[in-house]
Amino acid sequence: MQEDQRHRILGSGHGTRLGRAASRARRFGSDGQPPALSSARRRWIMYLFNHRHLIPATTLGQRYRQSLARQAEVLLAADSTIARLADEPIDISNYLFPNELQVTNVPLKKMLLIGSCLSEEYLNRFRDIDPDLKVRHIFLNNLQQLPKLTAAQLDTYQLQYIQLPLREVLTDRIVRICDIDRAHGFGEILDDARSILAAMLDAAMAYNTQHGLLTLVANFFVPQGPAAPSLASLGGEDDLIALITELNSTLAYLVRTYKNAYLADVNSLANSYGKRNFLDDIIYFYSHGSVLGSKVVINEAWAQHDNWPVWSAPNCARIEPVPDLAALYQLQPEPFFKLVLDQIRHLHRVTQQVDQVKIVIFDLDNTLWRGQIAEHYETGQAWPDLHNWPVGMWETVHHLRRRGILVSLCSKNDESLVRDRWSRAVGVPWISLDDFIAPKINWDRKSENVRAILSELNLTSKSALFVDDSPVERSEVLSGVPGIRAIGGNPFVTRRILLWSAETQRSVMTDESMNRETSYRGILTRNAEMESMDRESFLQSLQIRIQVDHITEIDSPLLPRVLELANKTTQFNTTGLKWTPPELTTFIENQGAVFAFSVQDKFADYGLVGAIFISDSIIRQFVMSCRVLGNDVEVNALKQILELVRDQDERPSILGMITPTEVNGPCQDIFLRSGFQAIETPNTFAITKATL
User: Fold this and answer.
1) Fold match between domain 356-506 and domain 536-691
2) Which of 151, 470, 494, 499 measures 20 to 30 Å from 398, CA to CA?
């Protein structure tokens, strides 16, 4: 294969082109600007550069390689977009919450803000940052009850953000910490604090427990500096920092016991930004946990209050006047407030599961390792270094896999050479070729290989991300696979984008998510066997088993997976409805029927893969994972469910509706294939109950 590619470059006149390309490099002006080149010529030069290892190692060949390197360098430098991306520093917001994978805008328009004095400051700053964001603030201290809001009122809010006061949890006795040391230590304090925290959280979560409102709960700021009696006590049972850290762990556990509720790790956010820029524990008591220098007027007032208070007029109250607080400590609280709001938006986006990445397809050379495996990992020469970003990328692969995101390969290389030299490029056994599903290592166009991978796995391009160091290859894939996203030019940002973007994070991990890779490997095995027999024989050999569950309780453990299917599935989704937990709860409480079905065959247990929503003898929505599409699972599951609902009311027929979209073609004939008949209403189908 490699020899064939060599002929593609050097044979059939391409050698002449190469010579012309080399001579063209010598005509580049002294200002370093390239001559006017067509886009096709630019792509050709970059193609030759990316395959320069195939050029013979002769004197002329070396000259060609050097010429191509010069041309490629100038062409890339002339690309203002690439130059700008390379030169622009990354601001703190994009650093923590990468937006490179965002396609769909999901604005935060209205929210509830519940908390103590710090939340009041959040309210004022959020309004300054985003005047269009509507925020209702509810002050909360201790165990006070929240004002009653109707379901209709709560439906207007996208989420609530809860900030509990650490001071109320620890109580003010924590200030006389030496008395605690002399008594029973932190054991009793921690037990009491946990009980208070649970009760306070329960009171603050009323809107969540009553109506399922999406809830983000901020944890506590862990103080700066030493708060233990001695160096030997750091991290021990009498360290206040360890105590507050333990309370944060308790809070995280408690939040997980509620539905549609998530932790907002504001303490980690503060660590990344720098607590020295805003945290008030250098002035106040440790459990106050608020922002210092958030208002210039207040800072000036404190200096004025200490220097020229009323009670010392007309004399200065201090021998040495104190300076402005913000100037003294170089406080910068404003960016922190913006980061808190950015974190809220980020977490909201994660919970909505928008633009989710289901598969990441990696290049190899200069993407998972440094250099080119064919040229730089030969016997008898020094191999490129594996430290820094390559080892980080290897770990990244596994973190993606544990989130249920598939990983694959698409590389222009000789596969046998890659297998032979894999251990050279990957110097530690952290990743193997077997970690990647449906890899394509050949000399075909990468867009063709990417389309083949997606076709084999029955995935859409919108759910795929392509990672490649070459701008030419990324451009070719973006052009040839519409809807796909592509990154990879800068190895210093790739890992962060892959792991920190909202589009690669999951709000919950269901059993199906954790077993997704195993399921897809079973699909590949199944497809390989299908090619060896006719369809009817193949379907009989699969030994397909379908289990249907009627979900009647709003606390059913199946509901999170049903929500995931309804909100993430695009291809087999008859109406495209999106559900929030409160909406689904209301649907069930109003006698709506939700049926979920799980599928197994001799190759794999695919878990819960489909759901049907029915009310008033109308199928409101039918969603199913495309992992089981094509084996008549959808028809058989629908027939089983129709038999279950046949006698639920007196209506003579059951209706099914289709809302056509650009991508839900696979389900648009499901009702016709299941015995329904089209009626006069567009995209609506009916089946008589008597025929079931």
Assistant:
1) no
2) 470
Cα 265 from chain centre: 16
Contacts of range 448-455, beta carbons closer than 8 Å, 24 or more positions apart: 448/480, 449/410, 450/361, 450/410, 450/477, 450/480, 450/481, 450/484, 451/480, 451/481, 453/359, 453/361, 453/408, 453/410, 454/359, 454/481
pLDDT for the residue numbered 239: 93
What tokens appear for 664 in the block? 């839900």
377-386 confidence digits (pLDDT tens): 999 999 999 9
d(CA 626, CA 523): 11
**pLDDT band for position 553 (cuts 50, 70, 90):** confident
What distance, in Å, lies between the first and last C-alpha atoms of the chain?
A: 57
* Alpha-helix residue ranges (DSSP H) falling in 79-185: 80-87, 92-96, 117-129, 151-154, 166-170, 177-182
Q: Where are the domains of the chain?
A: 1-88, 110-273+333-352, 356-506, 536-691
Q: Which fold has domain 356-506?
A: Rossmann fold (3.40.50)
Locate 685 and state its tokens.
């189908």
CATH number of 110-273+333-352: 3.40.50
Q: Please give the full DSSP string across 271-333, using - where no structure is assigned.
A: HHH-GGGTBGGGTS-GGG--BSSS-HHHHHHHHHHHHS-GGGTTS-S-SS----HHHHHT---
Higher pLDDT, 177 or 81: 177
Closest CA to 593 of 649, 668, 632, 636: 649
Contact at 8 Å (CB) between 523 and 627?
Answer: yes
Q: What is the pLDDT of residue 520?
A: 87
Q: Which of 13, 55, 4, 56 is nearest to 442 (CA)?
A: 4
Pairing of the two strands 605-615 and 618-624: antiparallel
What is the SS3 string spanning 534-546?
A: CHHHHHHHHCCEE
